[in-house]
Design a protein that fits this description.
Blueprint (H helix, E strand, L loop, with lengths): L1 H36 L8 H15 L4 H17 L3 H16 L4 H17 L3 H17 L5 H18 L2 H15 L7 H17 L3 H17 L6 H16 L3 H18 L4 H13 L3 H17 L5 H16 L2
Length: 328
C-alpha cells in the first residue's frame, strides 16, 4: 500500500511539473509572438527589439508569478547575449521577487544561483555564498527537483570557485554538474553546452589538458549540431581551446583554433584584439613574423579604439618581439 501511495504521489508530482512546464512554454510562445507582431512593420535591430521586450512584458504580464519570473529570465538571457549586463541583472532581480511569490522551489533556486554567479564574477563572494546556500537548501527541500536546475546551480558555483582560485572545488562542482544533468531534455542543449564548457575550463585550470581539449571540442561540436557554430559563444570556445592547446605545446593546432575564432569574429563584424593577439603569438612561434606584425598592429589600433589601456602595451611588446625576430 505504501509503495502504491508513493507511486501515486510521484505521478502527481510529474503531472504538476509537466503542467508547469507547459504553462511556461505557452506564456513564452505568446510573449514572443506579441513581440514579433509589434516589430514586423519595419526593419528593427536587436537592440531595438530588446528595448521593446520589457515594456511589452509589463503590458502582457501574466497573473502567475512563476510565469512572470520565467519570462523575465528569457529577456535577461537575451540581454546577456547582447552584453547588456546591467539590464540582465535588473531583470533577474525582478524575477527573484516574482519567484518568491511562487511555490516553485526549483525556479527560486535557479534565480538565486544566477544572482550568486553575477556577484561571484564581480568578486562579491560575501553576497554570492548566502545565495548559493539558500538555493541548495531549496533544492534539498523540493519534493521534485529539476535535474537541469541542479546542474546549472553546480555550474554557477563552479565558476565562482574558479574566480576565487579554488580550482579543486571548481572542478568537483563542474563534474557534479555533468552528472546531475544526465541526458539533456528538449530545449536543454544550450544549457548542457555551457556546463560542458565550464568543465573544460576547470580541467585546464588543474592541468588536465588532454581532457580539457576533449571537452572543448565536444562543446564546439554540440554547438555546430544545433546551428550555433558561428556565434560569439562558439568563437569564445575556439579561443579557449587554442589557449589549452598552447599550454599543451600543440602550437600548430592552437594556431588553427585561434584562426577559427578570429575568422568567425570577422564574419560577425567584430574583431576582438584578444583573438588577434593570441593568433599573432602562435604565428610568431611558427616563424611567420610578418603576418604576426600585421595582426598586432591592427590589434593595437582596435584596443585603442575600444579604450582598452591595459592590452595595448602587451600587444606592442609582442609586436616588438616579432620585429626583432624578423630582422635577425
Amino acid at each position: 500500500a505504501q509503495r502504491a501511495e508513493a507511486q501515486a504521489l510521484r505521478a502527481e508530482h510529474e503531472r504538476d511539473n509537466a503542467l508547469r512546464t507547459l504553462g511556461y512554454a505557452r506564456s513564452q510562445a505568446e510573449f514572443i509572438g506579441f513581440l514579433l507582431d509589434e516589430s514586423l512593420d519595419k526593419p528593427i535591430t536587436k537592440a531595438q527589439l530588446l528595448a521593446r521586450a520589457e515594456p511589452l512584458l509589463e503590458q502582457l504580464i501574466p497573473q502567475d508569478p512563476a510565469q512572470r519570473a520565467h519570462l523575465r529570465l528569457i529577456i535577461a538571457d537575451l540581454f546577456a547575449q547582447a552584453a547588456s549586463r546591467q539590464q540582465e541583472h535588473a531583470l533577474i532581480l525582478r524575477a527573484q521577487i516574482d519567484a518568491r511569490a511562487s511555490p516553485d522551489l526549483s525556479q527560486q533556486a535557479e534565480i538565486d544561483c544566477l544572482l550568486a554567479l553575477h556577484h561571484g564574477v564581480d568578486g562579491a563572494f560575501d553576497l554570492a555564498q548566502p545565495l548559493f546556500d539558500a538555493a541548495f537548501a531549496r533544492l534539498r527541500a523540493a519534493s521534485e527537483v529539476d535535474r537541469m536546475t541542479v546542474a546549472l546551480c553546480l555550474q554557477s558555483r563552479s565558476e565562482v570557485s574558479g574566480v576565487k582560485g579554488e580550482a579543486t572545488a571548481a572542478l568537483a562542482d563542474a563534474r557534479a554538474a555533468m552528472t546531475a544533468m544526465g541526458t539533456p531534455g528538449p530545449g536543454q542543449r544550450s544549457q548542457s553546452i555551457v556546463i560542458r564548457a565550464t568543465l573544460a575550463g576547470m580541467l585546464r585550470r588543474v592541468g588536465q589538458l588532454a581532457d580539457s581539449v576533449r571537452e572543448y571540442r565536444r562543446a564546439i561540436a554540440e554547438l555546430e549540431e544545433i546551428g550555433r557554430g558561428q556565434t560569439q559563444q562558439a568563437l569564445t570556445l575556439y579561443n579557449n581551446l587554442g589557449v589549452t592547446l598552447s599550454r599543451a605545446g600543440q602550437t600548430m593546432s592552437a594556431a588553427d583554433a585561434f584562426k577559427r575564432a578570429l575568422d568567425g569574429a570577422r564574419d560577425l563584424g567584430h574583431v576582438d584584439p584578444v583573438f588577434e593577439g593570441n593568433y599573432a603569438n602562435r604565428l610568431i612561434e611558427l616563424g611567420r613574423f610578418r603576418e604576426a606584425m600585421s595582426l598586432i598592429e591592427h590589434a593595437v589600433a582596435e584596443a585603442k579604439a575600444q579604450g582598452d589601456k591595459r592590452r595595448g602595451p602587451s600587444l606592442m611588446a609582442e609586436g616588438a618581439r616579432a620585429w626583432c625576430l624578423a630582422n635577425e
